[in-house]
Design brief:
Rossmann fold; binds NADP nicotinamide-adenine-dinucleotide phosphate
């Protein structure tokens, strides 16, 4: 592990694949030491860490279910011990299953709220005590919240809660010089979006934004890079809808 290069520490939840992995790569390129959180994809997380380390970034993989408060606490402790106190928290971990509200099982409701809402709550509460002053927090909402499409009731409800956390927490951190914002992506070509859709459905989504394509994980990583960088220092309590103009 190269220990010479990075000073500031970024913890990215759900960074084993998809948007989170792209964020980890981008923030590493920006000069952060990176904690790659994952829940079950240990091979992908370890491969990403090896890739970051090979490029000279100080990086670790940390297994933790964000819905589990003890695991979240341990995730921060391991990160502090191995990389130092956290400057940047990216609350990217999330799940989506589209089911009409009437057909949603209790188990799916619980799982979606546990990961998307309680997971964000757990890391925010922990971050309140642990984040360095001057730090940055980026939560993850979704453009689906504005589209009100059938099948998205439970998922959208979780993202509405995340947006509420974002607005209030930005104010509760008054005096710490910590910004709290959220990104609300439109459709991004990851397994969360692609799995279970036909090619026709995917193409329908791809044509929806005026920019006429699906977003890529790097599109969102670039937005996160901006929000945690020096140029976004005056952006606070905002929801940035990065969706090619979809909504
Ligand atoms: P993805 O490709 O399915 O990746 C999800 C990531 O979250 C994986 O690294 C997964 O790790 C992790 N994760 C899932 N449950 C977890 C848990 N309990 N604890 C810790 N990590 C957990 O999803 P994505 O498309 O990159 O989505 C990332 C975020 O963007 C989510 O919040 C999602 O709601 C939001 N978003 C996505 C889109 C889109 O179109 N893709 C659009 C709008 C918003 P394991 O593999 O180890 O479980």
């Amino acid at each position: 592990m190269n220990t010479s290069k990075n000073t500031q520490v970024a913890l990215v939840t759900g960074a084993s694949r998809g948007i989170g992995a792209a964020i980890a790569q981008r923030l590493a390129a920006d000069g952060f030491a990176i904690a790659v959180n994952y829940a079950s994809s240990s091979q992908e997380a370890e491969a990403l860490v090896a890739q970051l380390q090979a490029l000279g970034t100080k990086a670790i993989a940390v297994k933790a279910d964000v819905a589990n408060v003890a695991e979240v606490r341990a995730m921060f402790e391991i990160t502090e011990q191995q990389l130092g106190k956290v400057d940047v928290l990216i609350n990217n971990a999330g799940v989506l299953k589209t089911v009409p509200l009437a057909n949603t099982s209790d188990a799916l409701y619980d799982q979606t709220f546990d990961i998307n809402v309680r997971g964000t709550f757990n890391t925010l509460r922990e971050a309140a005590a642990r984040l360095n002053d001057g730090g940055r927090i980026v939560n993850f909402s979704s453009t689906t919240l504005a589209l009100n499409m059938p099948g998205y009731a439970i998922y959208n409800a979780t993202k509405a809660a995340v947006e509420a956390f974002t607005h209030v927490f930005a104010k509760e951190l008054r005096g710490r010089n910590i910004t709290v914002n959220a990104v609300a992506p439109g459709p991004i070509a990851t397994s969360l979006f692609l799995d279970g859709k036909t090619e026709e459905q995917i193409q329908t989504f791809a044509k929806m934004p005026p920019l006429q394509r699906l977003g890529q994980p790097d599109d969102i990583a670039a937005v996160v890079s901006f929000l945690v960088g020096a140029d976004a220092g005056w952006v606070n309590g905002q929801i940035l809808r990065a969706n090619g103009g979809l909504a």
